[in-house]
Amino acid sequence: MKSSMRKVSLLIVIFVPLVCHADGYSEIYGHTKSGLTVVIFEDGRTTSDIAVWRGNDQIAFYKDEPCSIPRSDPTKAELICAPNGKSPVAGATYLEKKVFNWSPGKPEYTYSCTSGCARNSIAPHALERFPWE
Question: How far apart are CA 41 and CA 26, in angstroms?
Answer without folding.
Answer: 7
